[in-house]
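Summary for the steering committee. One of the milestones for this cycle was to obtain a three-dimensional model of the protein with iron/sulfur cluster bound, which we needed before selecting residues for the alanine scan. The sequence and ligand used are listed below.
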Amino acid sequence: MIRELKTQRKEARWKTYDTWKRSCCCPDCPSYNECAGGGQELLYCVLGMSIRCIREDKHCTCRECPLYPLLGLTGKDFCMKGSEAAIRFERTVE
Ligand code: SF4
Ligand code: SF4
């Protein structure tokens, strides 16, 4: 899915991200906070970690998100660890 997305122009990609954001379950997660909501932060698994809002791990509900199987995700805590791509890269250098 992500490989296919990378062949698209960035404008088309952002449209897809906006569609995916509507399915993101992060706002229902205990780790998600007011700061993240105020900044409309979503889709950390693709867009990367929360820059300044989420620093306290209170659990991750990503595995219950419809996008988890759709995007072939394997990680969790994306808001604190970075995107799936970043997590996979880190695994290669461990
Ligand atoms: S997998 Fe997690 S970060 Fe990605 S869209 Fe779903 S809830 Fe949000
Ligand atoms: S990425 Fe996981 S831990 Fe972070 S807010 Fe979303 S569901 Fe919660």
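Key point for the committee: DSSP finds seven helices and no strands in the chain.
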